[in-house]
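ok so i was messing around last nite and threw this chain in just to see what happens. nothing serious, just curious
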Amino acid sequence: MRTAGGRLFVDLTPMLAAPASRQKILETLGQSDLLMKDALLTIINRGDFIPAEGSAPITKGLPPAFFQPPIGNDPNIVPGLIQRSQQALAQLKQDIQTKSGPALLDFIKENCSQLQKELTEPQNLPVILTAMGTYNWLNEKMAEWLGVQHAGDTLSLSAPGNVTAEMGLELLDVADLIRPFPAILAHLQQPGGSTFPEDLLSFEGGESIVRAVREFLDRYGMRCPGEIDITKTRWAENPSALIPLLLANIRNTSPGESKRKFEQGKLASEEMERSLLERLRALPEGEAKAAETKRMIDLLRSYTGYREYPKYAMISRYFIYKQALLREAETLVQAGVLEDKEDMYFLSFEELHEVIATQQLDASLIRERKASYRHYEKLTPPRVITSDGEILNGTYHRDQLPPGALAGLPVSPGTVEGRARVILQMESADLQPGDILVTAFTDPSWTPMFVTIKGLVTEVGGLMTHGAVIAREYGLPAVVAVDGATRLIKDGQRIRINGTDGIVEILED
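result:
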């Protein structure tokens, strides 16, 4: 990692220096962010990139799993990975309660290394890479053999075990509990909500709704927009952040939407599989092609849902760390070392360790860091920056774009028209049926919105980023990596998005 402008960047130099890792990282980026791949190719092809002498086939930076062949379909792998992760999480919750002072930070640092091992254990990454590989194989082969485009998207619908998709569907179920109680609905539409959900207990039906919200928070309360940043406020810390999502669900969907949406996706996937296999058997060498395709479909259905789990497990750990660190920061406030417990956020991990150990801190350091943070917030980070400070954002090489259209990466097929809602903060979302969400990026916390919108456009993203995976899961047309989308598209404009070809057209001002 390297730091620039208050952001973290991955140093790709060693990966680009060796031929094997260079090819693999470019292939991977080509499936996730074509603009980043194009920017890197610009550097490589112009001849001023200096490779390492005597580069080995594999250099540090890419885990060995990137070079391993796909794994077979074993129904025990994913449940085993999840079970081990849940056991480690339960152990962490228990062990961290006994830690305080510098020993707490030593414990968290050690536990982070265990998380690293969990994320890179032999089966974890191969499961995800196998899902990605089978998805690409199905798209390519069905187009080649049958002329069917984006078959993998339909075959991915309602795949089992997708913890992020399940989150959105479960929030629909919570909304269904609220629907029959107009007094509760009216109360949620009022400003405030700081005591949500307990403030519903005085209403008829409130007890069951509070119980459902609490169960939802037990499973997903560690999530929030920008959740990779440990300092962001979690849903469990501010449950009222769920109110706009619940109101949008009630306004834009019908009762039973959760089950209906899942079943529709499942039936569409099953029908696509049946149709493909039937048509393949009619081809020369059709039985062999059908058998191989069936094997790939089974692999995709078994493993693609797991792609969302490692992030969920990681964020679950981060929330436990955060709660423990805030308790420690509170003791620093009581001792007069910190003015506010959240001032802790402006210290590095090592600096916090030192402050806890010495009980001393120069307050000017916090003031300087806060000023720098306010400055960095205004900057737009580039996709690629060289050691010389050169910025490259890459370009799409499209020959036949409609006049004025914006190019992007197609990640979920289909063409839709609707009103653009340009939203940069999830809490300010006010979505209506038929709206197309336009935003800078999405992470798992945004995906409950996907059950109510018509399409998705983002400035950042790739084929296997969370928003793209869930868009395909819900059958939602989506175009990502549209450079400058939130600036070039105005809120309220009517737009057309083509998630098959990666095109966004502005139809009216």
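not much to say yet. Residues 78 and 217 are 24 Å apart (CA to CA).
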